Amino acid sequence: MPLGRGIAAVMIDLDGTLLDTVPDLAAAAQRMLAALNLPARTPEEVRNYVGKGIPKLVERCLRESACDVRAEVLQPEALALYERFYFEESGRRSAVYPGVIEGLDRMRAMHLRLACVTNKAARFTVPLLERMGLAPYFELVVSGDTLARKKPDPMQLQHICAAFALAPAEVLLIGDSANDARAARAAGCPVLCVSYGYNEGGDVHDLDCDAIVGSLSEAAELLRSTRS
Questions:
Q1: Closest CA to 48 of 207, 198, 180
Q2: What is the DSSP string of 142-174?
Q3: Which residues is 191 bridged to in the sheet?
Q4: Catalytic positions, please?
Q5: Half-sphere exposure of 86 (CA within 13 A, CB side)
Q6: Which pLDDT tens digits describe the chain residue by residue (228 residues)?
Q7: Rounded Cα–Cα distance for residues 7 and 203 (Å)
Q8: pTM for this entry
C-alpha cells in the first residue's frame, strides 16, 4: 500500500530526530575524559559516536583517547562517571529540531498514536522528554533498557506494535540512522529518515528507507497527503 494509507501510529526516535542532544552528550564526555586525565573529544566526534546507547558512546570515546587495553580497563569507571555527568547535563543545551512541534501537532490532529523509541536509558529519556516539553505527545515511551534488546534489533518496534494492537505495516518509524532503518525493516514497519541527525557519520541517503524528509512537519504532511 502507499506510505501513509493505513498508517495508524508513528514511532519516533529521540537523539538526532526529535532533539539535537549532542551538546549535552559532548559536555558529559568532556567532563568524563577530564576526570580520567584523557584527551578531550570534539563535539563533532561525539556526534559520530551517538546511536547505540551511552555504553557504546563511552567505549568509543575511550578508544579514541586511550589505548585499547586501557580503554577496556577504564570502561566501568568511565561509564559510571559519564552517567553521573550526563544526568547533570541532559537538557541544558539540547534543542528541539525545527518542525518537530508542528509535526507532532499535525500527527496528533490526524489521530495518529505516538510512541518515542530510543536506545537511551529510561532514567535519561523520560526526564529529557519532560524537560523539553515533548512528553505529553507520547502515549508510549520505549527506552534502551525497557526490553532485553534495542535497535537495530526489532524487539522495541514489535513491542510497540503489540501494545497498540496494530500490524507492523500500520506503524511508521521515523528516525535518523541505520539502527532505525534496520530495526524497521526487521520488524516489517515502514520507515522515514530525516535528512539531519547523526547516523554515526554516515550518509542518510545510503539508508534503506521509504523516504527522506527534511523535518517532522514534512513527514506529517506526507502522511496527510497520502491519506487523501
A1: 198
A2: E-TTTSS--TTSSHHHHHHHHHHT--GGGEEEE
A3: 173
A4: 13
A5: 25
A6: 457 679 999 999 999 999 999 999 999 999 999 999 999 999 999 999 998 889 999 999 999 998 777 888 999 999 999 999 999 999 999 999 999 999 999 999 999 999 999 999 999 999 999 999 999 999 999 999 999 999 999 999 999 999 999 999 999 999 999 999 999 999 999 999 999 999 888 899 999 999 999 999 999 999 999 876
A7: 27
A8: 0.93
